[in-house]
Design goal:
The protein is an alpha/beta fold and 582 residues long. Helix content is 56%, strand content 17%. Bound molecules: ligand C2E and magnesium ion (MG) (2 copies).
Amino acid sequence: MVKKGKSSGKRNIERTLQEILRSKYAPSGVYIALVLIYIATNVIVNAVASSRGTIELFGGEIPTTSFAGVFASLSNIMIIFMVVYYEKKGYITSLVLMLVQTPIWLLGIIKRHNIASLPGIFTTFLTIIAITIIYINNVNMDKIQEKLRDQAITDGLTGLPNRFACTEFVNDLIKRGERFTLVSIDINNFKSINDTMGRDAGNKVLIEVSERWKNIADNDITGTLDFITRQGGDEFSLIIRNYKSNEDVMSTIRSYESALVNKVTVDECDFFINASFGYAEFPTDAKDSDALFSCSDAAMYEVKRANSSEHIIRFKPELLSMEHTLEIERDIRNALDNDAMFFCLQPQFDISHKLRGFEVLARMKSVSGDNLPPSEFIPVAEKVGLIDKVDSSVFRKAAMFFGELIKNTGTDVMLSVNVSVRHLMKNDFLEEVSEIIKASGVPAEQIEIEITESIMIDSADKALMCINDIKSMGIKIAIDDFGTGYSSLSYLNKFPADLLKVDKSFIDKMNSSESSKKYVAAIISIGHIMNFGVISEGVEDQDQLDTLSSIGCDYIQGYIWGRPLPPEEAKQLVIADIQSGK
Ligand code: C2E
Ligand code: MG
Ligand code: MG
C-alpha cells in the first residue's frame, strides 16, 4: 500500500514539490539583497554613531548621530523580512548577523565612550526577542499550511501529486525554459475492472500501480529526473527531465511500462495491467502548457486507436486530426449526459415485400446541432469505451417505443438492435436486456440482437456463452455484415444464429461481377443449410432485387423499399402493413 502523506525529504517527488512551492514566493536573489542591505545599513549606523559632525537640514544644524536610529530601524526591518520570508534560514542568518555586530557596538561604548550606540544595542536585543516570537509563530503556521498544501496538491487515493501539482510544475518548467517531456498515461481496460470487480477493487489496483510508479520516480531508477502524478480516474502524467536523447526518454517510459508486467493481485484476483503512453516534449512539440497536454494526450489516444503491441508513441503533428476525434467524443458524452441520443428505424421486408421488422440505428447531433453520421461517432464511441452506453441508450428508447407500438397495434414484427462486443461482454448485459424487456413489454421473441461477424472471430468462446444465454431467453440472433470477416464454417456451425445479414459491399458488386453474385448465392445456400434466414443489406435497385429473389434470398433491407425512418413514420408503416392484411 502507498503510505499517504510526506515521505523522506530526499525523495524526488517531495523534493520537486518543494521546488515548485519555493520558487513561488522566496527567490534566493532577494535573500542575498536583504543580507547586503542589512550589512550596509549597519556600517552606516556605526559610521554616523561615532561621527561628531552635523548636517544642515531645513535651515538648522542636525548632529549626524541622530541618523543612527533611522538606519538601525531600517536594518531591523531587513531582519524581520528575512525571518518572515526565509523562515529557519532567515532566522539563523538574522541571529548570526545581530550577534556578530553586538560586540562591535559594545567595543565602541567601552573604548570610545560612544554612548550613542546604547539605544542600538537595546533595540537589537528587543529585535531578537521579536524575531524569535515571529519565528515560533511562523513554525506553527507552517505546520498548518503544510497540511493544507499537502491536501491541495496530493491525490487522496494514491498519495501521488495531483492534477493541480502537475499543471503547476509544467507551468513552472515552461517559465524557466527547461527542456522536459510530458507523458500522458492511461491504464487500458480499467473500466472493465471497475465494472466486473467493483470500485473498491479498482481503487486498490490504482493504489498498487501508483506505488510501483512512485518507487521508480523516487529512487532514481531510470537515470532521469521523474515526477509522476495522477490526473484522476485511470489517467496519470509523468514529467521527465535531465535526459540527453529521445532514447533516454523511451527507456524511462519503458521502466514505467515494465513495472506493470507483474500481475496485480487484489482481493485474491489477479489482474494483468497494461497502459498506453503518449508523450510530447517542451519546447520541441509544444510551446505552452495547454498545447503540451493536448499533444501528449493525442499521442496516448493514438496508442489506444492503433491498438498495436507498441504501447508508447511520441507526438507527431499528423496526430492533431485526433482533435476531431476528441470533439466527437465530447459530443457523444454530451448527448449521453443530456439523454440526446436518438434512433431511426429501417424497415426490413420479406422477398414478397411483407414487413418483417425494423433495424434500430443510432442517431445523434453534435453540440453545434449538425447530424453526425454513425460511421463517425460509432467508431469513436468504440475507441473511447462509450459504445456500451450508446447501445444501451438506443436499445432502451427503441424498446420503449416499440412496446407502446405493440400495445396499440398488436404488431408481431421484429425489432433488431445492434450490440457491440464491449456491450455484449458486460457482466450485466443479460440483466440489462431482461430489465428492458420487462420495462418495455416487448416479448423476447420479437427482439433480435445483431452482432458483427468480427465478434465471433475475436472472442468466439466468450461470445458464444453470452449468445447461448441470450438465445435461451427467446431472443433472436443475427450475424451482421456477414462476409466481411473470416469466420470459418466451424464457428458458424457453433453459433446459434437465426439470421445472416449479407453485407452491402457484396450487394453493390453483385450485378457487375459474376464472382460476387456467386459469392452471395453461396452465402445464401450456406445460411439455408445451417437453418438460418438470410437478409441482404443495402439493396438499392430493382436489378439487385431481381437477382436476390432468383438466388433465394429471404429478406431485403435497403433504400429500395425503405430508408431509416423517424419512429412516427415507422409507426405509420406498421399501421399500413396491418391494414393491408398481408
Ligand atoms: P449496420 O448495422 O450494417 O446498419 C446498416 C447500415 O446501412 C445503416 O447505416 C443503414 O442506414 C445503411 N443502409 C441500409 N440500407 C441502405 C441502402 O440501401 N443504401 C445505403 N447507402 N445505405 C443503407 P448507418 O445508420 O449509417 O449505420 C452504420 C453502422 O453503424 C451500422 O451498420 C452499425 O454497424 C452501426 N450502428 C448504428 N446504430 C448502432 C447502435 O445503436 N449500436 C451499435 N453498436 N452500432 C450501431
Ligand atoms: Mg446492423
Ligand atoms: Mg450491417
